[in-house]
Amino acid sequence: MIDLYKPAENLKINDFVYKTKLPGLFYIARRKFDDKRGFFREVVDIKELEKITGEKFVVAQMNHSRSETNVARGMHAEGWNKLVTVTGGIAFSAIADIRPQSDSFGKIEKFRLGIGQDALPGALYVSKGLANSICALEGPVDYVYIVDRLYADRDPSDDGAISVFDKDLNIDWPIKKEDMILSERDLQAVSLRELHPGKFK
């Protein structure tokens, strides 16, 4: 059974934001207001987020990816801070700390994100250096994220990509390896040992 993240009272930072076991990774929950037209939900209050992270978050770019069922994307660690939410479908997300200087290096937090069916409908704040992924369980999955740096302005040396099948991370994916649909980049991604060999001496 996959050990999924669950917001709990002892993890609360304020009424909406919850810490996780990875420094710099937060779950942001919001109340949903339903009526006959549909619903309204505030995704994030940037000022509130900045108080918690201790750093400025200037929205530089907003991105949207759509993934059909069984598509997996990741594990990617770009040189930017990211706020993500799943606005359609159900996705599994594994986030790993691949920052060599971090006390939680090699640790993982796992989420079920989306709308309905025991999925968390809120957002994740993912600090730079954390490798994140999504796997579409019930597609299409609409994955919307804002970042604090333009893709064109990023330093490519800040980007990292780890294989979703990394043996040290040993992620228990909810779909079979042979059923996963992956990009060529993700199929060729290196292992954590290859990226940071000094951490495994």
Tell me what the structure shows.
The model has no long low-confidence stretch (mean pLDDT 93). It is built from three helices and eleven strands. With 201 residues, the chain is mainly beta. The relative contact order is 0.22. Strands 1, 2, 5, 6, 7, 8, 9, 10 and 11 form a nine-stranded antiparallel beta sheet that branches. It has a two-stranded antiparallel ribbon with strand order 3-4. It has one domain: Jelly Rolls.
Distance between the termini: 31 Å
Low-confidence stretches: none
Strand content: 35-45%
| Computed Rg | 16 Å
The chain-level structural class is mainly beta
H-E order: EEEEHEEEEEEEHH
CATH superfamily: Jelly Rolls
Spatial shape = globular
CATH class: Mainly Beta
Number of strands: 11
Summarize the structure.
The protein has about 200 residues and is mainly beta. Helices cover about 10% and strands about 35% of the residues.
Topology:
Elements: E1 17-19, E2 25-28, E3 33-35, E4 38-40, H1 46-53, E5 61-67, E6 72-77, E7 82-97, E8 108-114, E9 123-126, E10 130-147, E11 160-161, H2 184-187, H3 192-195
Antiparallel strand pairs: 1-2, 2-9, 3-4, 5-10, 6-10, 6-11, 7-8, 7-9, 7-10
